[in-house]
Amino acid sequence: MVDIAKREDYSQVMKVWDIVPTTDISKLVKRLDNIFGMYTDEYISHCLAKCVEGKMEVPMHWKISSDIIRFKKNCKASVAEEDGVIDVNTYMENSKVNDSLLLMKFYSLSSGIVKHLLTADDGKEIDIPFEVNDEEEEIIMFPRSSFILGRSGTGKTTVLTMKLIQREQRYLISSEGIKGDSSQIANWKYVQQGDFQDSGQEDFLRQIFVTVSPKLCSAIRSQLNRLQSFMSGGNYSSSSGSSEMHDISDGLTDFSDIPDCLLNIPRKHYPLIISFRKFLMMLDGTVQNSFFNRFRSSIPLSVDGNRESKSLALQALRQSKEVNYDRFAAAYWPHFSSQLTSKLDPSTVYTQIMSHIKGGLGIGVSHDGILGREDFIELSEARASTLNCEQRKRIYDIFLDYQKKKGKKGEYDLSDLVIDLHHRLIMDGCKGENFHFVYIDEVQDLTMRQIALFKYVCKNFDEGFVFAGDTAQTIDRGIDFRFQDIRSLFYREFRSEVKNEYKMRGKGNELRVSEIFSLSQNFRTHDGLLKLAQSVIDLLYRFFPSSIDVLKPETSLINGEAPVKY
Q1: Which end of the chain has less neighbouring CB within 10 Å, N or C?
Q2: Cα separation of 479 and 473, whole Å?
């Protein structure tokens, strides 16, 4: 069937919805008729337009002067079933998410893709780039550093991955001299020959993707390996363990084949897909006087001569000495004065310590990375906080007691490591890799001070950063921020790094900061569940206005099945 695709312009394309037996054609046609009934008259007229050149009918093209709206506003449609068409008022399509035609992935068919499909005979799963919607395409093509906010299932990780792989593909085209869009090639020549060549590094594209979840890293790495195989015509190969993760006996996830250092990372590891914890270990291993040197005396002498055993022992020791929320609640909280902890819960106190007292930046933060007492108390008014001044005074006293107890036990928390890294990086600088592009997913699980570490490893501030996340999905205890906070941080902290540098290059001293992109179409959940979830979000908006970003309600193209009663 003829449809409309939006790229450099609007153009007609042939779209294949499914390949089915003759007996199933009528059923598919009824479902498609139901979907096409939701298209606007303008959209249908563009699909039906014909352009004949000689004896051939060729696709028509239209300039993108204004959007061609696909779906009618608040459209209603009847539901096609096997027994006929029944008059049921539904919003969009009434089906399971997995069976929805509206949520199907489409792929651009070209001679290269056909060759790839025909020659893939190794039995491995085939992965080729699929078409994204207009909302996602706009973000992927956006040339500057950006911020992506969207709820679960709206495609944030997909956008990051597609943006990364597109840059890899364009760089490959540019570096190998393959004919293509001259504007794109010129843009990627800048990466090869521009401002990043003063480090003496080997000439290739350095992209890093960081996320909190090691499992998500593994999934993204697998997908990228398959996409890179497609890009290179099946010639791409990565050693099976080059970026795989392994679990050691204590459950600590370890990217064992990637060095704990940002110096001279082998090309085979790029694009570098790692967890934030691994990023911290690599950054610590790059700067002089590792934070963990203080624990080396605790490593048993029996493993000193074995490098691998020593490394594993140090990893295990790091974990045994680290105070996370569970240890804070179990080993520290019961030992604080009851007068201080009265009517406070450990989760709230831990969050205030990690995100604000030790994890914040800006006014009131001392040279040792700690927010002063009076400045912390004043936050009760500045952030529409649910904590009053008296509670904040007690929280700060708990923090001081926590610091003393932690010091006596010889333990640390992640904020101690991050503060120490900032000190050493300010003093000595980062002599490791200078990445061209940085992608940070699940950014809602990082504190402001943690996010600020990325300014040391990438100097491409105008174009090189993409942050994605959702404050409604925070999984790590101790994190509290909104996307406006991170946008402000990026302008304030990252801009200070480049002001003089940009003057020297004749670029001026203004770092442009984009608006926040919002993704609202959900590809994982039907409309009924989204309405239920939105009712919970509305309560958060009302009772905790400073804890979550306000977004327009999510939408789904399918209504979904009604709940089943037993």
Answers
A1: C
A2: 11
Question: Strand 76-81 vs strand 56-58: parallel, antiparallel, or unpaired?
Answer: unpaired
Least reliable range by pLDDT among 137-141, 188-192, 275-279, 520-524: 188-192
Tokens of 154: 């709206």
CA-CA distances (angstroms) from residue 273 to 158, 222, 243, 317?
Answer: 14, 10, 8, 25
* Beta strand 61-62 pairing with 10-14: antiparallel
Specify the DSSP element, H or E, that contains 13. Answer: strand 10-14
Name the residue type at position 278.
K
Residue 252's CB is within 10 A of a number of other CB atoms, namely 16
Nearest 5°: phi and psi at 83?
-85, 5
∠ CA 526-551-207, nearest 5°, is 90
Q: Please, what is the average pLDDT of the chain?
A: 75
For 12, list phi and psi in degrees, rounded to 5.
-75, 140
* Residue-wise pLDDT tens digits, 117-172: 666 666 665 666 667 777 778 888 888 888 888 776 677 888 888 899 888 888 87
Cis peptide before 271 (omega within 30 of 0): yes
Could you give the C-alpha distances from 226 to 55, 139, 220, in angstroms and in order? 41, 23, 10
Contact 59, 12 (CB under 8 A): yes
pLDDT tens string 423-457: 999 888 788 778 999 999 988 888 889 999 999 99
By residue count, the chain amounts to 566
**Using 50, 70 and 90 to split pLDDT, how confident is the model at 91?**
very low
Which CB contacts under 8 angstroms, 24+ apart, belong to 373-376? 376/352
Which residue carries 């940070």 as its tokens? 440
User: Which letter does DSSP use for residue 328 in this model?
Assistant: I
What's the CA gap between 291 and 260, in Å, rounded?
Answer: 13
Cα 437–Cα 443–Cα 447 angle in degrees, nearest 5: 115
Total-model pTM: 0.73
User: Given this model, what pLDDT does residue 87 score?
Assistant: 35
**In Å, how far are 220, 258, 293, 382, 424 from 290, measured between CA atoms?**
30, 18, 5, 37, 9
The mean pLDDT value for 251-267 works out to: 74
Phi-psi region of 92 (alpha: psi -120 to 50; beta: other; left: phi over 0): left
pLDDT 10s digits, 281-329: 999 989 888 888 887 665 554 444 555 555 666 677 788 899 999 999 9
**Distance in angstroms (rounded) separating the CA atoms of residues 273 and 275:** 7
The Cα 80–Cα 95 span in angstroms is 10
Phi, psi (rounded to 5 degrees) for 557: -80, -5
Rounded CA-CA distance 521/523 in Å is 7
Cβ contacts of 560 within 8 Å, gap of 6 or more: 94, 95, 96, 97, 525, 526, 527, 528, 529
Asked if 212 and 445 count as a contact pair (C-beta separation under 8 A), the reply is yes
